[in-house]
């Protein structure tokens, strides 16, 4: 039986021997692509080559790409641990042709690798093609020898022309084309029907390889113009492949996951290695470790907040298993044993990864205990309206978020395990109410007014917001609470902070000021509003969430860009 590492190596060696240049995996944070939160497929690093805006490294390329689907459009987080094949982090095997080979070679090589090298039984495989792609159909039938009964034509099944599981397009316009998917039949003892049938969502027939044939350029009017140099883009999930070749049904039964599950069981003192919480922990340590290795750190915004959500979801599952000590960072060594050779960055960044995870564990430990007690009291209150509706009130979800650091999807995760939901509309109302209170407090509270003698001593704040929304190494010139200058501020205290320079826009012309964060190592000051006083002195109104802030400290000032954009749009529309 081949290990996952051997399958990864087999794939690369097969395509190297067939004239492909092997390229390393791109990071999980896409380079020069603001449209994507994370690298979520193998084609991401080649997007500009397909669009023609940059030259490909070679005409034939193969790689193994680390991918993440846990935020934005592609988000598998809620399903992880509860199904056989959903993951946050996964590996995508891919081979690519930029104007070199096309359908015949792509199909032949896929078939040779699956049945010749890996010895998959041909009678267990079937293929799908786009319903008008007679060329691909003929290759499968006449060249490969697949019976017509195992070649399925898939039409436009998503409500619009070319909207199909078997027609791939990068966007509404641009490169696109039909695809052919290869499925493995697990056997009639597993529920489910073939692709295109009413029962296709069952687990019997599993897609293992998608061959995309980019042969058209879609125009704004919807018409398709043939590309002068058609391309091939293929993707195969390594974990799914390993499950088939290791003769198991669930991805969590393959060697990589079993090692991680055993380690998670050891650290949480859990004997039942089939427990879903162990699956969650095993999945999440891969996502979190690779994200940190690629430069993402836990925070309350963007990619950092997705990472924080994943970490805290794993910690909550550890808590469910009864562990009350830091365990998650101790999984990293086992992960490196399994994947460090293929991804040396894990070895290089081990200290950083373990330290970041340990810090987040320590930060969340106390609030996790209290938050779970609060949530448990709501779930157990049989006489309440919430219990009758089987819905966690929005106010409770907000308290968990605001006071105990529970991402709302973590609350939803717990609720779902009890057959409950979360009142998301109520949660959003509470969020907006807090924003409004912060705005009102900053506008009308005399406590945010600076003493006249301090204003006279301070120079005008240098505004950096035209060029950037984040500024590093900014000096804290003053801290003021209730009109009294302070030397330091403790966690939980509110005040105004004055910096030497800032990217924060101050309230002006009817547009409210920016919100965001001031951060340093172990320190976070949440800025609720920004105002201007005297001769251009910017004051940052907010609350110290963590650590101790002193006059003279150096901080990183980060604007909440999404809030700024929403405010600007609202202001321009009124």
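^ structure tokens above, recovered residues below v
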């Amino acid at each position: 039986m081949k290990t996952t590492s051997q399958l990864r190596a087999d794939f690369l060696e097969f395509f190297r021997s067939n004239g492909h240049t092997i390229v390393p995996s791109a990071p999980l944070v896409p380079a020069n692509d603001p449209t994507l939160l994370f690298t979520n497929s193998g084609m991401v690093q080649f997007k500009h080559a397909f669009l023609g805006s940059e030259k490909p490294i070679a005409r034939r390329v193969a790689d193994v790409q680390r991918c993440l689907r846990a935020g934005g459009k592609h988000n598998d987080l809620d399903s992880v641990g509860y199904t056989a094949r959903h993951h946050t982090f996964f590996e995508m095997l891919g081979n690519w042709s930029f104007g070199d080979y096309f359908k015949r070679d792509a199909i032949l090589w896929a078939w040779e690798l699956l049945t010749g090298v890996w010895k998959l039984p041909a009678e267990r495989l079937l293929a799908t093609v786009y319903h008008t792609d007679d060329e691909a159909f003929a290759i499968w039938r006449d060249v490969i020898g697949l019976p017509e009964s195992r070649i399925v034509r898939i039409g436009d099944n998503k409500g619009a022309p070319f909207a199909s599981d078997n027609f791939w397009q990068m966007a509404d316009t641009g490169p696109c084309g039909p695809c052919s998917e290869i499925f493995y039949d697990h056997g009639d003892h597993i529920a489910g029907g073939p692709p295109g049938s009413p029962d296709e969502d069952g687990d019997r027939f599993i897609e293992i390889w998608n061959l995309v044939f980019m042969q058209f350029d879609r125009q704004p009017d919807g018409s398709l113009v043939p590309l002068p140099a058609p391309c091939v883009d293929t993707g195969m999930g390594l974990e799914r492949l390993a499950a088939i070749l290791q003769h198991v049904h669930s991805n969590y039964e393959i060697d990589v996951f079993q090692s991680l599950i055993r380690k998670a069981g050891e650290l949480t003192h859990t004997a039942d290695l089939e427990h879903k919480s162990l699956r969650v922990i095993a999945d999440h340590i891969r996502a979190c470790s690779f994200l940190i290795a690629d430069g993402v750190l836990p925070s309350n915004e963007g990619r950092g907040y997705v990472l924080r959500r994943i970490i805290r979801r794993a910690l909550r599952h550890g808590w469910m298993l009864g562990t009350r000590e830091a365990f998650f960072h101790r999984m990293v060594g086992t992960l490196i044993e399994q994947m460090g050779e293929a991804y040396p960055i894990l070895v290089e960044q081990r200290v950083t990864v373990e330290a970041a995870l340990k810090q987040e564990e320590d930060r969340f430990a106390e609030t996790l205990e209290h938050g779970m007690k609060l949530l448990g009291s709501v779930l157990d209150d049989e006489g309440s309206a919430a219990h009758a509706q089987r819905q966690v009130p929005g106010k409770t979800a907000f308290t968990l978020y605001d006071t105990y650091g529970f991402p709302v999807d973590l609350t939803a995760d717990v609720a779902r395990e009890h057959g409950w939901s979360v009142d998301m509309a109520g949660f959003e109302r509470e969020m907006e109410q807090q924003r409004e209170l912060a705005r009102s407090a900053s506008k009308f509270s005399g406590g945010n007014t600076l003493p006249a003698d301090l204003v006279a001593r301070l120079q005008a704040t240098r505004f950096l917001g035209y060029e950037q929304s984040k500024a590093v190494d900014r000096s804290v010139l003053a801290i003021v609470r209730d009109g009294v200058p302070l030397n330091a501020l403790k966690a939980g205290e509110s005040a105004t902070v004055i910096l030497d320079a800032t990217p924060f826009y101050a309230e002006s012309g009817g547009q409210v000021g920016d919100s965001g964060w001031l951060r340093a190592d172990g320190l976070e000051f949440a800025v609720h509003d920004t105002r201007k006083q005297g001769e251009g002195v910017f004051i940052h109104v907010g609350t110290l969430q963590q650590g101790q802030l002193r006059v003279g400290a150096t901080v990183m000032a980060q604007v909440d860009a999404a809030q700024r954009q929403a405010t600007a749009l609202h202001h321009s529309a009124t």
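The first helix runs from residue 4 to 17.
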